[in-house]
């Protein structure tokens, strides 16, 4: 009974806030934006921080008086990490809620499923997923944008660093999932461009318990560095094996490495591991003049204060997607076509969480390898490599 | 030489855990003729509970181990009393096997709820430099894993051959009806077999977690591999499971090392298929005993 009473009270309070809120600002119509995230299901590790980020931002924007006096309303739908559900959510948002734009979904598969629907509805979609196909070929993606960096940019950042350090022969090991496949393809394709030869190409499963064998093979093939491409426990096990073997060659991880949890799990084995990471993890090491610094600091501290946890890279993708739309609304008002044109042409040198965006008619992502810093772990802390 | 040695030790480590899972399968199979497909889940329980007691609650190492094994044993006991015992009378083996699948899903769900999807780990039993043997690197935890597996095997051997309870369990595996006539309480033996197999699985989890981390859904793959091992060695033969475990572990490691790491799991399953085709009783089983099997 107590629980019921409590929920009734909460409901009433909620209604009260809602009514008083609309009462004060009913003179201007709210701007409606849709959001589709994988809040539950297999990709919930993406959707959860994305949803949290959007909720926090909407509160902040409305508290500051909305967009040109119009309150912002974001309708968040849970796609349950399912493509069909994402399509249904999009249809609901477009037809019932008449949203001006949709941000999300969280995964590449769901985003691809929405491409035809959004194109038909002539409504901008700003995806938070990474797959290159989401925005390429750009001619057929007139209404589609994305805020997550390309996998290829992360590979370029690693190769670029290796070129500077004179590393020519590398061994790669990739996990047998979509993430690993995409990484492997990019690693193999881009190597010749940087004068790098791949001397070993190893794979492992997402539930494998020991990668010593792969590492020993890479070492005996004469590699000067190891690149591991995975997310989840695999990247920690590889790090531990690499440390135990005392391989004497550096270990590079993918852009999926940027979680404090990985340092905790790998312990001292993580010392010296290098990875291309977004500036979110190293915001406090950036020079004060850096255009992203103030933004990152505010995001990290606000998020920590509200949710008592660190925001990950993924929440940042939702941040950028929402703020790009908000920026467009502020300048061109509630017109879908004008919003699209604004995003394509006016988002230039636009500092976000993921990097500094430069959208153009040929690039609907606007991030390249400069979005990444090469980050090394020293004494259990992230450090930027020069 | 160095390479081969490195691959062998890598294989032995994984093989030790496969062997423990395989033995767990056999113990339950011997007393009930069913395959307990939740066997891999006990390994996960072992790893995660150990983390919970040792890292989460900061209990001393030995206390944590004792509590972990106690918890695992209790879960094994509850599982048998609540799901297997009511069905045992009906004697529908397929039904009971399906119940074990349901149990594995249930346990996985609870673990996900409690621990989330992140992997967990704790430090190795002994901190220290890895041992270098002819250029191959062997971590101390690897030796612990292999050593503890060996101790388990010896203890189980003594239990089944030297103690009255052990002999009673053996009798049940040979002929349940005759065992009943001799005054053995078969229901208790079945319960005991679940407890022992749960504890053995948990031991596997405790030793492997510092090497390979542990997350809520690792059990399914371990169940498949452990089942492979039990079939390879001849279902019901614990010595077979041990040899099978080490063979599978080493083969996987050698395949990854000399052919390609992508083929590793395929090779394991191929071997199982070949054994089922040409030696359906397993490498060590006798074909005659196969005809006596209920399942």
Strand and helix map with partners:
The complex is a heterodimer of chains A (386) and B (295).
Chain A: H1 2-25, E1 31-37, H2 44-63, E2 72-78, H3 83-95, E3 102-103, H4 108-121, E4 125-127, E5 144-146, H5 151-165, E6 169-175, H6 178-190, E7 197-204, H7 212-220, E8 225-229, H8 233-245, E9 251-253, H9 260-266, E10 274-278, H10 293-307, H11 313-332, H12 336-346, E11 350-351, E12 356-357, E13 372-378, E14 381-384
Parallel strand pairs in A: 1-2, 1-3, 3-4, 4-5, 6-7, 6-8, 8-9
Antiparallel strand pairs in A: 10-13, 11-12, 13-14
Helix pairs in contact in A: 2-11, 3-4, 5-6, 8-9, 11-12
Chain B: H1 2-32, H2 39-56, H3 61-88, H4 93-115, E1 131-133, E2 136-138, H5 140-162, H6 164-174, H7 176-181, H8 186-212, H9 219-232, H10 238-259, H11 264-278, H12 287-292
Antiparallel strand pairs in B: 1-2
Helix pairs in contact in B: 1-5, 1-6, 1-8, 1-9, 1-10, 2-3, 2-4, 2-8, 2-9, 3-4, 3-8, 5-6, 5-8, 6-8, 9-10, 9-11, 10-11
How would you describe this structure to a colleague?
With 386 residues, chain A is of the alpha/beta class. Chain A folds into 2 domains: 29-149 and 296-368, 3-Layer(aba) Sandwich (Rossmann fold), CATH 3.40.50; 151-284 and 372-384, 3-Layer(aba) Sandwich (Rossmann fold). In chain A, 45% of the residues lie in helices and 17% in strands. Chain A is built from 12 helices and 14 strands. Chain A has a 5-stranded parallel β-sheet with strand order 2-1-3-4-5, sandwiched between helices. Chain A has a 4-stranded parallel β-sheet with strand order 7-6-8-9, with helices on both faces. Chain A has a 3-stranded antiparallel β-sheet with strand order 10-13-14, covered by helices on one side. In chain A, helix 3 packs parallel to helix 4 (108-121) and helix 8 packs across helix 9 (260-266). Chain A is globular and about 70 Å long. By secondary structure, chain B is an all-alpha fold. Chain B has a single domain (2-292), classed as ABC transporter involved in vitamin B12 uptake, BtuC, CATH 1.10.3470. In chain B, a hairpin with a 2-residue loop joins strand 1 and strand 2 (136-138). In chain B, helix 2 packs across helix 9. Chain B is globular, with a radius of gyration of 19 Å. Chains A and B meet through strand 7, helix 7 and helix 8 of A and helix 1, helix 8 and helix 10 of B.
């Amino acid at each position: 009974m107590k629980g019921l009473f409590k929920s009734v009270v909460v409901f009433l309070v909620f209604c009260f806030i809602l009514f008083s809120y609309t009462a004060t600002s009913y003179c201007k119509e709210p701007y409606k934006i849709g959001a589709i995230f994988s809040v539950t299901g297999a990709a919930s590790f993406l959707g959860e921080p994305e949803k949290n980020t959007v909720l926090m931002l909407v509160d902040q924007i409305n508290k500051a008086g909305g967009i040109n006096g119009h309150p912002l309303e974001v309708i968040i739908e849970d796609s349950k990490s399912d493509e069909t559900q994402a399509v249904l959510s999009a249809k609901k948002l477009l037809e019932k809620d008449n949203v001006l734009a949709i941000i999300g979904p969280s995964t590449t598969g769901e985003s691809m499923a929405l491409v035809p629907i959004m194109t038909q509805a002539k409504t901008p979609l700003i995806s938070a997923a990474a797959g290159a196909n989401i925005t390429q070929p750009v001619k057929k993606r007139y209404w589609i944008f994305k805020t997550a960096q390309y996998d290829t940019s992360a590979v370029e950042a690693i190769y670029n660093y290796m070129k500077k350090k004179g590393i020519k022969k590398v061994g790669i090991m990739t996990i047998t999932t979509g993430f690993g496949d995409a990484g492997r393809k990019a690693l193999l394709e881009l190597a010749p461009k940087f004068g790098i030869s791949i001397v070993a190409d190893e794979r492992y499963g997402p539930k494998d318990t020991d990668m010593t064998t792969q590492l020993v093979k890479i070492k005996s093939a004469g590699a000067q560095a190891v690149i591991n491409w995975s997310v989840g426990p695999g990247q920690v096990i590889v790090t531990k094996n690499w440390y135990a073997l005392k391989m004497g060659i550096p270990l590079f991880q993918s852009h999926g490495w940027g979680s404090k949890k990985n340092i905790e799990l790998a312990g001292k084995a993580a010392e010296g591991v290098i990875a291309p990471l977004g500036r979110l993890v190293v915001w406090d090491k950036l020079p004060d003049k850096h255009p992203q610094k103030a933004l990152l600091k505010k995001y990290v501290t606000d998020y920590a204060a509200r949710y008592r946890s660190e925001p990950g890279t993924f929440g940042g993708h939702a941040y950028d997607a929402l703020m790009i739309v908000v920026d467009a609304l502020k300048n061109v008002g509630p017109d879908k076509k004008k919003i699209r044109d604004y995003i394509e042409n006016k988002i230039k040198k636009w500092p976000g969480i993921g990097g500094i965006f430069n959208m153009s008619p040929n690039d609907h992502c606007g991030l390249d390898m400069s979005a990444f810093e090469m980050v090394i772990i020293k004494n259990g802390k992230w450090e930027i490599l020069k | 030489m160095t390479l081969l040695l490195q691959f062998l030790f890598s294989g032995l480590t994984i093989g030790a855990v496969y062997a423990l899972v395989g033995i767990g399968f056999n113990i339950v199979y011997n007393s009930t003729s069913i395959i307990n497909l939740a066997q891999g889940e006990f390994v996960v329980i072992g790893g995660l509970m150990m983390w919970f007691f040792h890292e989460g609650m900061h209990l001393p190492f030995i206390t944590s181990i004792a509590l972990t094994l106690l918890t695992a044993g209790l879960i094994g006991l509850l599982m048998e009393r609540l799901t297997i015992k009511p069905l045992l009378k009906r004697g529908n083996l397929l039904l009971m096997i399906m119940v074990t699948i349901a149990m594995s899903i249930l346990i996985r769900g609870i673990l996900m709820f409690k621990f989330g999807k992140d992997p967990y780990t704790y430090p190795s039993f002994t901190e220290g430099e890895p041992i270098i043997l002819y250029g191959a690197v062997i971590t101390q935890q690897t030796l612990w894993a292999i050593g503890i597996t060996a101790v388990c095997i010896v203890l189980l051997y003594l239990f089944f051959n030297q103690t009255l309870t052990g002999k009673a369990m053996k009798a049940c595996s040979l002929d349940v009806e005759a065992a009943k006539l001799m005054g053995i309480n078969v229901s208790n033996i079945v319960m005991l077999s679940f407890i022992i197999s749960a504890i053995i699985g948990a031991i596997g989890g405790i030793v492997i977690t510092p090497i390979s981390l542990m997350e809520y859904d690792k059990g399914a793959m371990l169940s498949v591999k452990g089942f492979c091992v039990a079939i390879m060695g001849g279902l019901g033969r614990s010595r077979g499971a041990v040899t099978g475990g080490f063979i599978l572990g080493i083969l996987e490691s050698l395949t990854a090392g000399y052919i390609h790491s992508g083929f590793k799991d395929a090779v394991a399953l191929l071997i199982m298929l070949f054994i089922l085709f040409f030696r359906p009783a397993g490498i060590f089983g006798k074909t005659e005993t196969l005809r006596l099997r209920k399942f």
